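pinned: reference chain
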Amino acid sequence: MIVQSKDPYGSIRLKSKNVKNAIVQKISQDFNLTPIIAEAYFRQISAYFNEHLNIKLSSGQIAYEAIAAEEPPSKHIALARKITTTLTLNDFNSDLQILADQGLAGLRRHRILRLTREAHDQSAVLSYEDLAVLLTTSPATVKRDIRALRQRGLFIVTRGWKHDMGPGISHKTQIIDLYLKGYQFTQIEQKTNHSETAVLKYLKHFTQTVQLHTQNFSPGQIRTVTGFSDKLIGEYIELYKQYQHLDNQRLKLLLNPEPREKKGNTDEKTL
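pinned: its C-alpha cells
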C-alpha cells in the first residue's frame, strides 16, 4: 500500500530554508553549539539588534550610544551598559533664531540643554566628552558652558553629575519641592531642563515612597520595593514631613488624587 505524503510539495522543508535557520545553523557550526542553544543566541542577538540598530531618525537627528543613567560614574565605560539614544543635533526651527540672538556660544549652550534632556528622557546620560564630540568643541568648553547654565539655576544631568552635585539634595527632590511650592509644570520644565515625562515620573516615585512610608514601611523595606537609594528615600520622607506640617494642598492631591471629571486646573497632571 502506498502511503500518501502529508507534505507532497515539501512545504515543511521549504519553510526551514529561511534566513533565520541559515544563521542559526552557522552559529551552531561556528561555535560548536547545539541547535537549541544556537537558536537562543540568535534570539538574543536579534533583540540586541532591534534595541541598538533598528532606529528611525528624523531630519537633524542622530543615533548615539550613551551610558545608561543608572550606571555609576565610577564604572568603567567599557563595562557600563549602553543605550542607543535618538538625539536632535540640529533643530532649525529654534537653532537659527538662537544663533541670531545669542551667537555661537548661546547656540552651543542651547544644544547642550536639548541633548542632555533628550538623553535623560531615554534613561541615558551624556558625558562632557560625548557633548564635545557632538558639538565639535572641547570638553573644557563644554564644562564652562554647563557651569554657566547651572549658575542660571538650570539642572544639567551629565554622567559626572553625581560628583558635580556634591553632598546637596538630588535634582529629583528639588523638582518635587518646586511642584509642592506651587510652580506650574511648564515653569518646572523650563527651570530644570526636564521634560513633562520626567517630572511626572519623579512625582510618581515620590508618591510611591510616601505611601509606603505612611503604611509604616521602613526605609529598608521601601528600598527593596522601589529600588530607590537610601539617600533619595530619606530626602523624599523629609520633604513629605515638611509639607505635611504646612498642610500643603498639592501634597494632598498627590496622595489622594481627585477623579478626572473633577479636575479643574489644566496644568495639573494625572499621576
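why pinned: The two ends are 72 Å apart (CA to CA). The mean pLDDT is 84.
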